[in-house]
Amino acid sequence: MTRTVSRLFDSYSQAQAAVEALEQAGFTSSEISLVSRYRDDATLVDDEVSNTATGATAGAFVGGGGGLLAALGLIAIPGIGPLVAAGVLATTLVGAAGGSVVGGLIGALTNAGVSEEDAHVYSEGVRRGSSLVTVTTDDARASKADAILNAHKPVDVRQRREAYVAGGWSKYDPDAKGYTADEIRQERETYLRR
What are the boundaries of each domain within the chain? Predict the structure, then answer.
């Protein structure tokens, strides 16, 4: 039986390091996915993509390194905007942009076995500038994936959900615009003060 292990990272470099560690541990590009609005910790992909890019693929690119990170592509998803993505979720999201998956990132995550409640938090996190790493693997290797992801200091999803709710959030809104770089910085400073 397969299981999907997911973690949200506030730093793209943490997500990138987690992906590299997963690959070094023997997980393949077909098991790992990365979704982010950042191409590195300093460059929001919104800054690089024309506002007119609305289809499934805004362009291929973005890689760096080998393995999954070399396969990163740039896609535009209604409701979130341009994303850097690779892996199974990227393939599913390209279909979502074409209308074949209901719910975009939420639909892709729930189809992969993530609870709807967590899928809303992950989608909102990506909208607000965090990076999502998922690993879909068999039960026997899921605990290894879990340990590797946890070693790279992911967001505590329960605490993040509570912080979002305390700010008036109830669920991911696909019509909400992605946070700007300034809004992301401001929110991160708020979380770091807690």
Answer: 2-193
